[in-house]
Amino acid sequence: xxxxxxxxxxxxxxxxxxxxxxxxxxxxxxxxxxxxxxxxxxxxxxxxxxxxxxxxxxxxxxxxxxxxxxxxxxxxxxxxxxxxxxxxxxxxxxxxxxxxxxxxxxxxxxxxxxxxxxxxxxxxxxxxxxxxxxxxxxxxxxxxxxxxxxxxxxxxxxxxxxxxxxxxxxxxxxxxxxxxxxxxxxxxxxxxxxxxxxxxxxxxxxxxxxxxxxxxxxxxxxxxxxxxxxxxxxxxxxxxxxxxxxxxxxxxxxxxxxxxxxxxxxxxxxxxxxxxxxxxxxxxxxxxxxxxxxxxxxxxxxxxxxxxxxxxxxxxxxxxxxxxxxxxxxxxxxxxxxxxxxxxxxxxxxxxxxxxxxxxxxxxxxxxxxxxxxxxxxxxxxxxxxxxxxxxxxxxxxxxxxxxxxxxxxxxxxxxxxxxxxxxxxxxxxxxxxxxxxxxxxxxxxxxxxxxxxxxxxxxxxxxxxxxxxxxxxxxxxxxxxxxxxxxxxxxxxxxxxxxxxxxxxxxxxxxxxxxxxxxxxxxxxxxxxxxxxxxxxxxxxxxxxxxxxxxxxxxxxxxxxxxxxxxxxxxxxxxxxxxxxxxxxxxxxxxxxxxxxxxxxxxxxxxxxxxxxxxxxxxxxxxxxxxxxxxxxxxxxxxxxxxxxxxxxxxxxxxxxxxxxxxxxxxxxxxxxxxxxxxxxxxxxxxx
Length: 689
Prior knowledge:
By secondary structure, the chain is α+β, with helices and mostly antiparallel strands. It has 17 helices and 31 strands. The model is unreliable at about 335-340 (pLDDT under 50). The relative contact order is 0.10. A hairpin with an 8-residue loop joins strand 26 and strand 27 (about 650). The chain is globular. The strands form nine sheets. A six-stranded antiparallel barrel has the order 8-9-15-14-11-16. It has a four-stranded antiparallel sheet with strand order 20-21-22-23, with no helix packed on it.
């Protein structure tokens, strides 16, 4: 018979921990929260100091019954939920349901699921931290007050099924304001001049810099002509050559937000998927003879702190594998002033779990994410890269061209990992030949190019997470669910992996802006996050914070009840008739974006997807047109509009011309370096125009 019962959230975590604790311990899973506020009503006593009324979550009765029976058979129960506010709240609810004294040493926390970390944690159990619980309760009550008061108003005045959450409303605001910036953006013309130069048989590229050593922006074609007219002949004198050594430092190991951003850039993972796969790596994977093993530390963190044990082990690994010169001086410190530093950064539980050695035990997604985490962590403790940079100024009659070049002198951390960016471009080495001051080089034909300034980019998931983190909106556990919510409510849609607000989203935002400006105010929401942190730190009382918020919020509610006008979102005519009943077809918004539906609903329930033609005749049946479609997993593909009569499909976009080599159809294929055009059958390939 076991002496102790340990309760965690998931079966995977239970299985991993059981390996390390031995036969005296029974480990069971609560399957997440067991109690919560009721879904059918507010569940918060506004008059009674905002006291929440918790009930057992539907379906959790049998789980609780099993846990109660197991608890009666042991000497002591340990609550080992995740080491954050949510985990502390789960432990507190379990303590209440199982009649465990919350002030007793019943709570066990660990940042990684390894044998040593588990054993150390069970040597120092502690009481439940009510400051952490109160911070989670405050967030839950706050979100319930906002959601359960504003949402019914939206149902009444706009349409059913809408919601207005505290953080989601600010995220929606960011996307809508960015769209307004794009719509109001006025492009400005500017020009560049580049040319190839040659000297001693080697060529290199330089770009126009300025006149008489002063930088000059070229705004018009007339200014370009004036510059070109000033150049006398083709000989340029090398005015100066500046050589420098530049250090490029490694980036810090991952925190939640940076992991979500980098996984989006490099792996094309959505934030929700990143957190799901990271949870699997944290809770443990079956590694054959070694058993179930946790591969990474806790993945909800805003701290870049690294334990001394992990730092020492990794420095030794780097020295052994790459050499002493590659060992860095230490780790990066967190630049996030909101970081609670309660956890470490996201890192491998051991640097010796090399991605290639554990690959056979991981799914494809698990391997890719683990490799990213492992490489980022190891690189963060490596030496800076050393770059040799060269800058040469070339002059002809006062016209200055500048050539810049760089090459890696010592790769340092770049041997293992280079951080991605939102534009998916890599910093490339640019070679310059050996240039000597006062020598002459010859200019080839100048190439003037007209450009226009671009509007700010729409938010990708990575950009939105980064912005939310920078302005202090939300915390590590909230980024993914917030983004998920505004999409499920159809307030925004993804177009080419960028967020675009829908008409519904703009209507909801306008209502929030008019009647609840504090809820969508960035500074107000950021301050509320700081207040929640203060509750967690025991610096303030949660009831006081909620009461202060509700005093003004209640007045806003009363005003909205009286003054809010009903809003009708009209269906947009599609310009075609229903083939079943003859009524006009309209565009409607569904779970997966817009679709076509009959305006005679509910009498006629005809619906069909919106098919975007790409201007190409089907290469198989020669009669139909190629249209853009979406798979069940929302992946874009191309097919014939005569389906099912013609079953042609292609993941790559077909083009309206044939391969010059074998006459098969050409496709446009996206690769890391950009778009390429290649044959669907043979090895013919060309650069996309």
